[in-house]
Input
Amino acid sequence: MKLAIHFSLREPASLSDEELVEFGLRGVEVPAGRAATGLPAGLKPCLFDAHVVLGDGNRVDVEMWDGWFRAARARGAQGVAAAVRVEPDTVDEATRAVLRLGELAFQRGTRLLLTVRTGNDPALQASYVPLISWCERLDGRGIGIVLDVEAAGLLGDDPRQLLREAHGYVQHVRVPSPAWRCADEAIVAGVMRELHRVSYIDYVSLYGQNDPDVPMAEAIDALRQAAVRAWV
Output
């Protein structure tokens, strides 16, 4: 298994285009509103991040989502990512939104990729468990999961166990660099070992609460070294 690291445009880039490719950054996560314009040379969008929270009471703009799904398909991206807020009084709303958009994504030949809402307020967070149940309900048609290793740890979910339980529904994995110290290095290494076992995922996104005191090249190398140690 060869590790190809993707890069999030939400993180400040301190590397040149040539260095991005040299350090194994094959693609980028792109904010959906940017429509993947002006990407560094040699990189392609791996997914669009809608920066939208489903189940938070806001109206679902189907026309806007349709445009994002079409753009994802046209540019060869995995799909469009959105966070989900699931609480007892919002679960029905979130379910309706997810199932509706999942069907639309399937019609457009792409996927709605779900992750959890994260933040300092525990009331705005949710477990990954409902996301797996929605994937099962749609049998993976037009829907998948973005597993955020840092977020899963904050929520008390074991990302390694989630990879085992998700029945292939995890389409994309966001892994922080051990150099940022926002997730335990043992957890990062465990995720890498699990990714080596599940052969359908062969790259990750460098994603998380980055440390401004750690040069990006050092962060990338720390993640690569964690993968090497996990796979030998």
Remarks:
- The chain has a mean pLDDT of 83.
- Residues 4-231 form a domain with the TIM Barrel fold (CATH 3.20.20.150).
